[in-house]
Amino acid sequence: MTFTVTLAVLASALLHASWNALVKTGADRLMMMGYIAAATGLVALPFLPFIPLPGWDVAKILALSFALHVGYKLFLVKGYEHGDFGQVYPLSRGVAPAIVTVVGAVWLGEILPTAAFAGVALIALGIVSLAFRRTNGAGLPNDPRALGYAFGTSLFIAAYTLNDGLGGRIAESPHIYVIWLFAGDGLIFFLIVLWRRGRAFLKPQRAMAYGFAGGVMSVIAYWLVIWAMTLAPLGPVAALRETSVVFAALISGLLLKEGLGWRAVAAACVVAAGVILLKV
Question: Does the global pTM surpass 0.90?
Fold first, then answer.
């Protein structure tokens, strides 16, 4: 991984943690996610007349990706309804890199050096260790449903990471793939939230502005990752992107006041060690 790719993925990590924090702090988290999804679709919309239609092979990958991204959003919203940002976010992101790396090695033949596998393992270990707190930010026992939804979210993340990584490689251009991905995903989730919330979802409000800002963050973050996956193996890119939990730990403790103790600091150091191994 070159320095430019590494820097791009780290920027993606910061943006990703930021828009997730917006979902967590929203009064209606499903509506906030809907605004973010709608914004991603609107950002992609002006580019559609200038890009070719996806071929059949790419269209099949996109169709599966739409379903995986919808499942990811619904599980993530449920996770934030039952748990802290500092707990749900790291657990949902932490399991995915290990899954992606193993599948990438077995399915795609991306056999990595031992140090790279060790780096992925350290990143996953540091991320998951951030999740296991006995109490939430309010000092109450953790809701086990939050862990279940977070783990389900991680499975969707692993699946769409592999699927979109392949789509970006097979498509004429990774940028074209991302435009179709965000346009379709944004429209589908917009319709789902409109069906669930009705006219309240269309009413102008402050949350809509925050959601649209989060949508722009989401587009830039994911665009950077798809681009990076065309230049480097899927496993290391996915693992490095999950350093977003370090940024999430800071947001959780400093902005959301959920607590930032010695465990979060130690876990961040473990993640950093994993990143160094990946670079080596």
Answer: no
